[in-house]
From TrEMBL:
It comes from the Bacteria. This is MarR family winged helix-turn-helix transcriptional regulator. PANTHER family: TRANSCRIPTIONAL REGULATOR, MARR FAMILY, TRANSCRIPTIONAL REPRESSOR MPRA. Pfam families: MarR_2. It comes from Microbacterium alkaliflavum. Residues 27-163 form the HTH marR-type domain. Keywords: DNA-binding, Transcription, Transcription regulation. InterPro entries: HTH_MarR-typ (IPR000835), MarR/SlyA-like (IPR039422), Tscrpt_reg_MarR-type_CS (IPR023187), WH-like_DNA-bd_sf (IPR036388), WH_DNA-bd_sf (IPR036390).
Amino acid sequence: MARSGPLPIDPIAEAKRQWVAHGWTDAAAGMSAVTSIIRAQQLMFARIDAILRPFDLSFARFELLRLLGFTRTGRMPMASAIARLQVHPTSVSSTVDRLVRDGLVLREPHPIDGRAAMLVLTDAGRELVERATTALNTEMFEDPGLSAADTAELVGIIARFRKDAGDFSDPRPAPDPL
């Protein structure tokens, strides 16, 4: 049964207290950080899922459509989509299969590499992703639940973490707010 309101205590703070009480003091702050990020992701995904549900889109499907929508011609090689989305090729392939099935994306032969595929955004896919983007912008991204200063600080902290983890190298020119 789903809970009906806020918990009377912060379970992550309680977990940290327990970590310290069990002698894992050196790991307590890291456990708190990791668990907090995971919980924040769950909360954000719940909002995103609710916003995208009327469009019959998952966030993965939205991301792929949006990626194609950002290109000049609405097309890109499958390998480029996999690299930019930073998910396993099988996951991207599965997402593409569903988008193709729904008439939102076409899979065409690559014009030069016969082994590769091109992903092409259909008119229906473009129209849907524009409507979904408007909804996400209005209902989530314009107010993610953090102040503007906290949002900028959080993005900066996470960007440094991602860069240090090898997620990307310094781009030139650097986009804000890195």
